[in-house]
Amino acid sequence: MTLPQPASPDPRRRVLLVDDEISSTEVLALILAEAGLHVTTAADARLALERLDEARPDVVITDFMMPGINGGELVRQIHARAAHRHVPVLLISGAPQSALRPYAVDYKAFLRKPFSLEQFLGAVRALLPPDTSERNAPSP
């Protein structure tokens, strides 16, 4: 599902949001869209992998506990693809981060649910590549 975007999302800054909790996905997608990001959503890891090449995300945000393929295995499968090997992943979970150690997941950031809007957007912004459009804009 691709949600409606704000008037002028930056098409260069893309997020793939993966969560089986539909209400959570909708809220987080709206927050990201309001922040000016192009958001593609997937309700599970299988759909995320199907949409990965088209979405071309700069950041993947995924829940860990999902039916079928969990977030840890999703990260492994994303990073196994050469085109997406370096895409940073924000892993979100209701479980403490220590509970994920046995899975040896290669994520860049972790947020434990519940988290604040500021924590969420701060974590996403920290993972996005620099916005070069501001640096290349003409001076006033």
From TrEMBL:
<dbReference type="InterPro" id="IPR001789">
    <property type="entry name" value="Sig_transdc_resp-reg_receiver"/>
</dbReference>
<dbReference type="InterPro" id="IPR050595">
    <property type="entry name" value="Bact_response_regulator"/>
</dbReference>
<feature type="modified residue" description="4-aspartylphosphate">
    <location>
        <position position="63"/>
    </location>
</feature>
<keyword id="KW-0902">Two-component regulatory system</keyword>
<dbReference type="Pfam" id="PF00072">
    <property type="entry name" value="Response_reg"/>
</dbReference>
<dbReference type="GO" id="GO:0000160">
    <property type="term" value="P:phosphorelay signal transduction system"/>
</dbReference>
<keyword id="KW-0597">Phosphoprotein</keyword>
<protein>
    <submittedName>
        <fullName>Response regulator</fullName>
    </submittedName>
</protein>
<feature type="domain" description="Response regulatory">
    <location>
        <begin position="14"/>
        <end position="128"/>
    </location>
</feature>
<dbReference type="InterPro" id="IPR011006">
    <property type="entry name" value="CheY-like_superfamily"/>
</dbReference>
